[in-house]
Amino acid sequence: MRRENIKKRRRKKRKRILSVVLIVGLLLIIIPTAFVLSKNILEKNISKNQDNTPKEDTTQNEKPVEPVKQDVKEEVIISAAGDSTLGTDTKFSGETLPAVFNTTGKNYAYFYQNVYDIFSKDDYTFVNLETTFTDATAKKDKGKPPYYHFKGPKDYVNILTSGSVEGVTVANNHIYDYGQQGFNDTIEVLKGAKVDIAGEGYKIVKEIKGIKFGFLGYQAWSDTKELRDKIKSDISELKNSGCEVVIPYFHWGIEGQYKPYDVQVNIGKYAIDSGADLVLGSHPHVVQTLENYKGKLIVYSFGNFCFGGNNNPTDKRTFILQAKLNFTNGKLDQTSFKVIPCSVSSVNNKNDYRPTPMKDQNKTNLLKFLNELSPTLNGEIKDEFFQIQ
């Protein structure tokens, strides 16, 4: 009996020990697990609270990055030429310009046909229109002869448009050959054909590739205060209206003289001093000096061009001037020039009224002659674009 009690006590003791071991083992598992779980929960709560905390908007303090502006570059080519007398004097006979026109089947494009490729590829062409387009018959009294009265039928304006001539100066000694009616008819016809007009109270403001150009025309027979005031006022007006480039065209000089006289020189330089960017001239019926004045060009005379005033002029030499103007952001920053030697006729023995670019030795000779006349250009005149300083 006693032995059985001892065995029972031993079994109970072993059970208690086993229970303690199990409890301790469970605690060793549960406590670390609970610690890890509670830590994770705590971290999640902290993270959640941090996410809900209002953040400072730093973007308000950041300046927006502006895109880099690219310079806007533009190139404009202006062509200019001399006396275009698209008509005749009623006293003339034989092969006058109207007579030749009739033999072509009344082809308006005939006259500028040989320079059309030049004029049509530029941005603007500007010439001296030395005639009237009118049906008027009453001639202006010009005093003692010799004198001439030039006119062409009104439809001759199509010669200009067919030749890609966009603008003309009418400031010359023939625009009133048929009085006020002849002048009024000419202006009306030009406007109807959308040919721009400069001179005799008209100014051209033309926007080309987003850049404003101004063109003016003057008769300049003497150097007067009135003329100077007019030149200065007109150039200032155009510049103030936004014209980046202003080009006046003067009718001046002495016929048959290859060098300018003091009136031309003084007025031309005054125009540049007043803000002109390029000065053009005609009337002497022959080419004259080109001058570099303060880095700007003065063309004193182009000579004749499409000239119905003579059926066989002794000196048929003329030229087209092209000015290439380069702009950055609308401001002129570089100008270069090209002189294209021409003859007023495509044949040598008469005037067929078709100005034609020269070739070979004739071209070389005229460029040489112009350089000899123009010492301030230092021999730079050529039929490729060149710059002056």
Automatic annotation (TrEMBL):
Q: Which Pfam families match?
A: PGA_cap (PF09587)
Sorted alphabetically, which CDD domains does this protein's record hold? MPP_CapA
Top-rank taxon: Bacteria
Q: Which SMART domains match?
A: PGA_cap (SM00854)
The signal peptide stretch is: none
Gene3D superfamilies cross-referenced by the UniProt entry: 3.60.21.10
Q: Region Disordered: which residues?
A: 48-67
Biased amino acid composition, Basic and acidic residues: 53-67
Capsule synthesis protein CapA domain sequence ranges: 77-309
What protein family is recorded? Belongs to the CapA family.
Q: What is this protein called?
A: CapA family protein
**Organism the protein comes from:** Clostridium intestinale
